[in-house]
Amino acid sequence: MKNTSFKLCICIFTIVMIFSSCSSTSTDKNHCSLQLKVKDENIILTKEQNHKLQKLSLDYLKSSNFNTSGTGPQVNLNLETINSGYKKALVGNHIKIVFTDAVTANCHGGEITFTELVIGPFQNRTIGAPYVISDKGYLIGFGKYSGALAVQLKQYVSTITTH
Q1: d(C-alpha 25, C-alpha 33), whole Å
Q2: Could you check whether the bond before residue 73 is cis, i.e. omega within 30 degrees of 0?
């Protein structure tokens, strides 16, 4: 019962977040909407920035070696820690990509099918962890991802937000 309540809570939270960000997102030909939020403002992206940010974000996710999905190598995080990290990402500076149809990423830690990707929070020289909402509505956390891709993603976000 407790697990079902948690899943329902995550589903409701996700739906609210999707609808609350729809008016300020960029959409490209990949049937997704991308939101870059910095200092409580949604950054308007060019088509090129949207495409590159989406690619870097997906590459960052794919570089992860562990996840909490129950398949492949596991990162040892409890549900409270994952939920807290996800909420902190959404409240802080973050990248959020919502896909119209579920997509599958072949991560180093196994294959993941999802409809939403959130990366954050980020500040100064660091970028936070990736989180996804699976095609089944589960919140999945990730661990041990590429430091080089994290730096590249953060640098690209910085170039967008400093112009």
Answers
A1: 6
A2: no
**Domain range list for the chain:** 2-161
Structure tokens at 91: 């409240």
Q: Which residues pair with 20 in a beta bridge?
A: none
Q: What is the DSSP string of the chain?
A: -HHHHHHHHHHHHHHHHHHHHGGG-EEETTTEEEEEEETTEEPP--HHHHHHHHHHHHHHHHT--EESSSSSSB----HHHHHHHHHHHHHSSEEEEEEEEEEEEEETTEEEEEEEEEE---BTTB---EEEEETTS-EEEEES--HHHHHHHHHHHHHHHT-
| Contact partners, residue 30, CB within 8 Å, separation at least 6 | 54, 99
Q: Report residue 52 CA to chain centroid gap.
A: 15
- Condensed to tens digits (0 to 9), the pLDDT of residues 83-128 reads 899 999 999 999 999 999 999 998 887 889 999 999 999 877 788 9
Rounded-to-10 torsion of CA 84, 50, 135, 102? 180
